[in-house]
């Protein structure tokens, strides 16, 4: 500054004149000596006790209760407010991240809707529904991989600020969780509106809102998983292969490619650790839980078999012969397989759809807790 520290000196003099009446007793003497003022500051947690240059004797750390000295300058709610506001400003300054993510969800939903347009209740329609559910639920988790570089880009800032105890790590985790959650709601409704009615899924309004809830839970768990990995790995190029390969394993053991009762016993534990298993089974039960819905009638039982190529008249004759042999009247309109029967065939019977929903939500909380633990263990960076 051209005038040096003159403005600062004038400001200090004015402040002393303004505060002089408050800092003196009625007899005109200072209310606190320097030693007393420092001791009072230590007791209120404003200063950390220690030695000075020798001109003033300061009480040692043993004379000040440890609980009286605060480790952080601000309370938890103040940190939350500041960090939440900062995270919101960063998000607002980079709208292209959310726009690209929303575009990816809409494009994926549009492609799935056009491929699986208005599926019927035939055996082929059932198999096509399985494919749609597997691709849709795994897409939620793959889309969340863009959360991986968020913390990695802020890693050095976070390490520098927490080294000075500028804020708690829990405040950082919670503030970013709060700021990121509204975008997950928008993405969930965008995907559900694009696919649910176009594919012709069952359940009406109740089924639609449950579909939105399980998609939201999948986004919640997937973003938590990517966030946790960002606290473990230190490089984006290392993190993406880990995310992609792990999600591929989750899809493999989800129950789509191989039923639960067909998975070898030494791999069954991975089936229950699969993030894709729970949303996949939830949407399956949301679609096939109605016992009044029939998916295989009469001669449709020959579909997906070598007998499917037989003429329709011959199929009816085979059906009549089977009825006579079994002693059961099986006509062309007789229901062979209902929705619950199909769920039993797919071994989707150990959990309800609500159990799957809450387990998926719990996975999201667990991964954020693990992210917090990774920050505690990975950023012990006291200044030297």
Provide the fold topology.
Blueprint: H1 6-19, H2 34-43, H3 76-93, H4 95-115, H5 123-143, H6 148-163, H7 169-199, H8 204-232, H9 236-252, H10 268-273, H11 277-288, E1 294-297, H12 312-326, E2 335-338, H13 339-345, H14 353-378
Antiparallel strand pairs: 1-2
Shape: elongated
What is the H/E string?
A: HHHHHHHHHHHEHEHH
Q: Give me the Rg, rounded.
A: 32 Å
Q: What is the strand arrangement across the widest sheet?
A: 1-2
Structural class: mainly alpha
As for the number of domains, it is 2
Q: Tell me the distance between the termini.
A: 32 Å
Query: What's the main sheet like?
Result: 2 strands, antiparallel
Number of helical stretches of at least 4 residues:
14
Could you characterize the architecture of this molecule?
The chain has two domains: 76-294 and 347-381, no CATH class; 296-338, no CATH class. The protein has helices at 6-19, 34-43, 76-93, 95-115, 123-143, 148-163, 169-199, 204-232, 236-252, 268-273, 277-288, 312-326, 339-345, 353-378; strands at residues 294-297, 335-338. Helix 5 packs antiparallel against helix 9 (236-252), helix 5 packs antiparallel against helix 11 (277-288) and helix 6 packs across helix 8 (204-232). The chain has 14 helices and two strands; from the N terminus they run αααααααααααβαβαα. 63% of the residues lie in helices and 2% in strands. The chain is an all-alpha fold. The longest helix has 31 residues, at 169-199.
